[in-house]
């Protein structure tokens, strides 16, 4: 299949489908039987069977990754991921913000 003017190598054309999107093209999401195609990139180690699309938020997740606004996290734990609102979220390691390094917990004040 093609995504605009690019051929998506390794994607199965018979199971390729649109999942959903938000605003700009970086947030259009597709899938085939083996991959999530997020922000125009084929995520090779995505888990199609557990992928959840949240149409009213800027994030999505599967059992292996948290996806945020076209970006794929390699460190945030999807099993304990929870959106807090206003571009803040948390997992078992701490609280995160879209306004600073999104893969490292922010320092908190007790």
Structure explained in plain terms:
With 110 residues, this protein is mostly beta strands. It has no helices and 13 strands.
Jot down its keywords.
elongated, 110 residues
Overview in brief:
The protein is mostly beta strands and 110 residues long.
SSE order, one letter for each helix or strand: EEEEEEEEEEEEE
Q: Termini separation (Å)?
A: 51 Å
What level of helicity do the residues show? under 10%
Helical segment count: 0
Q: Over the alpha carbons, how many angstroms does the gyration radius reach?
A: 15 Å
| Average pLDDT level | 87
Structural class call reads: mainly beta
State which percent range the strand residues make up. Answer: 35-45%
Shape: elongated
The total beta strand count reads 13
Biggest sheet descriptor: 4 strands, antiparallel
The quaternary structure here is single chain
* Low-confidence parts: none
Secondary-structure topology with pairs:
Blueprint: E1 2-3, E2 6-7, E3 17-20, E4 29-31, E5 36-38, E6 41-43, E7 52-53, E8 59-61, E9 66-68, E10 71-72, E11 82-85, E12 88-91, E13 94-97
């Amino acid at each position: 299949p093609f995504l605009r003017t690019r051929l998506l190598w390794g994607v199965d054309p018979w199971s390729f489908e649109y999942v959903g999107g938000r605003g700009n093209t970086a947030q259009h999401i597709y899938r085939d039987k083996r991959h999530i195609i997020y922000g125009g990139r084929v995520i090779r180690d995505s888990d199609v069977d557990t992928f959840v699309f949240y149409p009213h938020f800027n994030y999505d997740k599967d059992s292996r990754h948290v996806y945020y606004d076209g970006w794929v996290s390699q460190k945030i734990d999807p099993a304990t991921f929870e959106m807090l609102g206003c571009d803040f979220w948390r997992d078992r390691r701490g609280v995160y913000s879209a306004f600073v390094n999104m893969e490292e917990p922010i320092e908190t004040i007790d």
